[in-house]
Amino acid sequence: MSSATFCSFASDRANLPLGDICVLDTDGGALVKVLLASSPASVTLRSLNPRYSDLVLPASSILHVARVDALLRLNP
Q1: Considering only CA atoms, which of 15, 16, 29, 23 is closest in space to residue 70?
Q2: Where are the domains of the chain?
Q3: pTM for the whole thing?
Q4: CATH class for the domain made up of 2-71
Q5: Cα dihedral 10, 73, 32, 26 sign
């Protein structure tokens, strides 16, 4: 099975899509998380896997944010 993810970039860093699943390009690599909170200093992220605790990153480490709009799974 293959899949494709459709995303839209967040153009306004002051109004990030809180509560949405996002792809975050960080200085430490890419993450797919739920964006819980954002301030000028930090962002709080939650994994879809409940075994992982919330993650707080400095806002300066976030290079790009894109909201996941759709996930398309294709069966051969």
Answers
A1: 23
A2: 2-71
A3: 0.81
A4: mainly beta
A5: negative
C-alpha distances (whole Å) from 65 to each of 42, 57, 61, 72 are 13, 13, 11, 20
C-beta separation of 61 from 55 below 8 A: no
The pLDDT tens digits of the residues spanning 5-30 come to: 788 888 777 677 889 999 999 999 99
Question: Exposed (0-12), middle (13-18) or buried (19+): which is 53, by Cβ within 10 Å?
Answer: exposed
CA dist 18 and 71 (Å) reads 19
CB-facing half-sphere around the CA of 33: CA atoms within 13 A = 23
